[in-house]
Q: What sequence folds into this?
């Protein structure tokens, strides 16, 4: 690992211009004004960053709070991870043309735009590694994912604030990033510590007015990360303990969860590791050509487990069980580790406020089930 | 052969078509690109993704690969296969493949071979049976069990009659819903055939294809009869869209049925098939 | 006599919004007329009798009179493929709210001579009276789905029938969930896809116009809405909207009508 350097807050724009000059379009965290919350979108300059903003998260709840701080990365995470920039939620795969009784197939692979993402979290980097394993490292390579992955620049920023839904410390994926980045920042009050993680990152760093980082600054950065880990209130049981879910496939708890589950698939849509997609055809009205597309799919949809005439997982009990056991148990033989990196999005973005980590703990007998299971009806969560 | 884009089909022409029963048909296909035709090779038990223009793809096991022609036997049950039945000789479709695991014909050498199939489950084993027949000396006894609902839904009866006349070979057919018992036919499900089948339980390889419930029941019975679980191989059907382990639909527990299967040993899936709706 | 498939577009009790969506589809309408013969569509002046044989009949509107029933039966008899078009035809529409009221009393209070009015006591979905081959939901329908249905028919297959929730489409568009970020009473988690998550993409809550999705949990979701500050009556009204007579939503409305367990 390279040594740490220091970039003054006032010099942050030089990072933006260095990335741009290297030919990347820049994606970063910003407030979504219509729907609320943070998103990774194209940003023009430092003024687009969510300065002095913190996220308040709870099951089924996400709000931004103004803190007045000068910091731009003092939030935990965004609604969707960086996943859509690699594995597109909707994508054309190929097209076919029918002419004179013949069918001609044409791939629609395009060269991806060079894309830099700023403010990537440790949990999302770990998730990206899992998506790489899925789309790139099997017997077959996904050319669409690969094209974008190869032209990606990742500028990670270590977390200094954990949301109430975060549990990356328990999965071992955060709050500090260990690998998989091109550049890594620690945000301090007055500026940024910077580490280089790749050749690509080194070329960007070479253009920045960096100074040596002091021992005090480095100590402050590690203290921040440690405090952020301690701040986390939720913990997923160990991978070894989670193996016991295998013996609980008929547990009554799945039915209790299904009583609340809306089977809406929001959890799988925001999960940074979920990879399921359905393929479908979009023929031109005149029938002379047709396009073959894929959409992000969810194990909460009926067509996910459809085989001729039968939906294997017909209800929410079976679907939630599939989602959780895949993520926490079946992922291990597939990719060598659990499929959860502790971001907590499945819990925050669940419209029924189902707490994924709590449910795993309840199933394994490590936590008591809450007394009130169904959503409260007292208006206590009314919008402020 | 592995294309750069595993999702992109190759064009193929329907060079012949046989209407086997009112809802089952067989296609003889030829890749229009000679290079693809020359390079294409499949292992017994693998499947292809067949594409109907403007409608979509379905996973169909390869019945056989004769010269540069591929045979697929298809039942018209879903929106894609029903429309496929309407295609004529000379029409063009798309083909990707082959995908998935194969029947263990190599490790089966020197052992008794038992095929257990139900309904159209006979198609994915046909090429394997032919392989065993063609290399008869390499294998021990050959037992072929096939179950259908009604005899008139059965496919390729003359073929079974032919196999019945081979040395050291037993062909057992049963119709589960017929009233009349035809010569060479039994009445009832596959289970009624198991008592009659003669093979070395300790030294056999069982290859099975049919509905989940039939395979689970039969596998359990065979294990009870003394056949080691590892000697039993089942071919599963799940929702397959990408066929390369990416789309996630075919998952059964830890397995991607499209790439880890469709052929599994019984112990790999026995517990999973016990859990309803998994 | 053209060899093109013949298409009819019929209207029953409705606002004609689905037909308007059809007429407004733009350039594809010209393409469509090359592929099919739009033989009957009163809205644009093509009027034929219901006894004319058609390949596809699109039916807009709900059934509210005895005469409607007779006309519909004739349409069915003469159509190879019958597709309901929009919320009214598919579930009974907003006007099905009257199914819960004393309509005879309403007629007496509104009309001087109610005996001249021949009306059924309910506003019914087309499927309540005849076999429907395919349903297009929405208020109004999505022209994209309508054209996909025609294309599928021309290919000789049934159209794809996706019944997932609006949330799925909403997330694919990269939206943040407004129920979670704002406490908005967005009905996406119980509503069927098809609109492309139009409303939530603009920050407005979904209001069920594509009807119920598959495997929905109205009890849990209704309670959650109450947790967000809606009264039980307001939750009832959320379900008793454009598709109030769709069974899953009418059940929900009953659940939130006056159940004692809701009084906390």
A:
């Amino acid at each position: 690992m390279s040594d740490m350097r220091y970039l003054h807050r006032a010099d942050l724009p030089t990072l933006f211009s260095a990335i741009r000059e290297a030919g990347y379009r820049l994606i970063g965290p910003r407030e979504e004004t219509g729907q609320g919350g943070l998103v990774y979108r194209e940003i023009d300059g430092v003024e687009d960053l969510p300065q002095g903003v913190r996220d308040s998260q709870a099951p089924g709840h996400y709000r931004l709070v103004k803190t007045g701080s000068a910091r731009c990365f003092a939030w935990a995470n965004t609604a969707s991870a960086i996943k859509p920039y690699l594995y597109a939620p909707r994508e054309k795969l190929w097209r076919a043309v029918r002419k004179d009784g013949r069918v001609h197939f044409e791939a629609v692979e395009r060269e991806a735009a060079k894309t830099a993402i700023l403010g990537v979290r440790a949990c999302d980097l770990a998730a990206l590694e899992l998506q790489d394993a899925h789309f790139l490292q099997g017997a077959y390579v996904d050319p669409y994912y690969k094209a974008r992955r190869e032209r990606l620049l990742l500028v990670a920023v270590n977390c200094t604030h954990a949301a109430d839904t975060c549990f990356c410390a328990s999965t071992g994926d955060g709050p500090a990033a260990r690998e998989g980045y091109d550049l890594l920042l620690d945000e301090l009050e007055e500026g940024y510590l910077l580490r280089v993680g790749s050749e690509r990152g080194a070329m960007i760093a070479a253009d920045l007015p960096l100074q040596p980082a002091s021992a005090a600054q480095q100590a402050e950065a590690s203290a921040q990360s440690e405090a952020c880990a301690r701040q986390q209130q939720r913990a997923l049981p160990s991978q070894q303990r989670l193996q016991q879910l295998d013996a609980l496939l008929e547990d009554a708890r799945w039915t209790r969860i299904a009583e609340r589950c809306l089977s809406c698939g929001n959890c799988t849509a925001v999960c940074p590791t979920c990879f399921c997609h359905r393929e479908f055809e979009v023929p031109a009205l005149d029938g002379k050509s047709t396009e073959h597309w894929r959409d992000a799919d969810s194990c909460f949809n009926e067509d996910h487990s459809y085989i001729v005439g039968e939906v294997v997982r017909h209800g929410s009990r079976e679907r939630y069980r599939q989602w959780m056991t895949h993520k926490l148990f079946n992922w291990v033989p597939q990719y060598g580790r659990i499929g959860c990196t502790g971001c907590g999005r499945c819990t925050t973005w669940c419209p029924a406020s189902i707490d994924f980590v709590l449910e795993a703990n309840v199933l394994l007998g490590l936590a008591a089930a809450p007394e009130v299971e169904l959503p409260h009806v007292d208006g206590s969560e009314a919008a402020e | 052969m592995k294309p750069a884009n595993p999702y992109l089909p190759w064009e193929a022409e329907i060079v012949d078509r046989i209407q086997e029963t009112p809802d089952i048909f067989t296609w003889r296909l030829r890749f229009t690109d000679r290079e693809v035709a020359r390079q294409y090779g499949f292992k017994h038990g693998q499947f292809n993704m067949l594409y109907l223009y403007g409608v979509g793809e379905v996973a169909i096991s390869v019945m056989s690969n004769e010269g540069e022609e591929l045979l697929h036997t298809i039942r018209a049950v879903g929106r894609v296969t029903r429309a496929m039945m309407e295609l004529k000789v000379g029409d063009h479709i798309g083909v990707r493949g082959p995908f998935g695991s194969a029947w263990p014909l190599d490790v089966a050498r020197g052992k008794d071979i038992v095929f257990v199939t139900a309904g159209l489950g006979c198609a994915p084993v046909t090429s394997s049976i032919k392989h065993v027949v063609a290399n008869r000396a390499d294998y021990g006894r050959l037992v072929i069990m096939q179950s259908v609902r009604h005899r008139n839904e059965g496919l390729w009866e003359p073929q079974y009659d032919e196999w019945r006349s081979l040395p050291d070979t037993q062909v057992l057919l049963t119709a589960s819903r017929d009233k009349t018992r035809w010569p060479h036919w039994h009445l009832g499900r596959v289970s009624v055939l198991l008592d009659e089948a003669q093979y070395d339980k300790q030294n056999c390889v069982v290859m099975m294809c049919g509905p989940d419930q039939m395979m689970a029941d039969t596998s359990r019975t065979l294990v009870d009869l003394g056949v080691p679980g590892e000697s039993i191989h089942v071919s599963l059907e799940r929702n397959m869209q990408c066929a390369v382990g990416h789309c996630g639909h075919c998952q059964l527990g830890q397995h991607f049925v499209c790439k880890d299967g469709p052929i599994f040993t019984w112990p790999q899936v026995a517990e999973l098939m016990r859990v309803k709706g998994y | 006599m053209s060899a093109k498939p013949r298409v009819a577009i019929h209207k029953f009790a409705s606002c004609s919004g689905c037909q308007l969506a059809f007429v407004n589809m733009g350039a594809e309408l010209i393409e469509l007329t090359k592929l099919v013969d739009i033989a009957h569509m009163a809205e644009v002046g093509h009027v034929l009798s219901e006894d004319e044989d058609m390949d596809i009949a699109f039916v807009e509107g709900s059934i509210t009179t005895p005469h409607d029933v007779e006309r519909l039966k004739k349409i069915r008899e003469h159509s190879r493929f019958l597709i309901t078009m929009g919320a009214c035809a598919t579930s009974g529409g907003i006007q099905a709210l009257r199914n819960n009221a004393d309509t005879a009393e309403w007629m007496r209070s509104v009309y001087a001579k109610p005996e001249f009015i021949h009306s059924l006591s309910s506003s019914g979905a087309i499927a309540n009276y005849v076999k429907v081959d395919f349903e297009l939901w929405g208020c109004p329908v999505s022209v994209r789905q309508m054209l996909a249905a025609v294309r599928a028919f021309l290919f000789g297959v049934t159209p794809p029938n996706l019944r997932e929730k609006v949330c799925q489409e909403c997330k694919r568009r990269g939206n943040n969930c407004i129920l979670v970020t704002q406490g908005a009473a967005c009905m996406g988690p119980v509503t069927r896809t098809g609109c492309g998550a139009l409303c939530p993409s603009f920050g407005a809550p979904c209001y069920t116009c594509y009807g119920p999705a598959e495997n929905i949990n109205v009890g849990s979701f209704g309670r959650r809405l109450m947790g967000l500050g809606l009264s039980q009556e307001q939750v009832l009204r959320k379900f008793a909207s454009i598709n109030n007579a769709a069974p899953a939503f009418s059940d929900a409305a009953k659940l939130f009508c006056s159940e004692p367990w809701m009084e906390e």
Remarks:
- Chain A has a mean pLDDT of 94.
- Chain A is about 30% helix and 25% strand.
- Chain A has two domains: 5-87+111-231, 239-276+299-363.
- The longest helix of chain A spans residues 316-335.
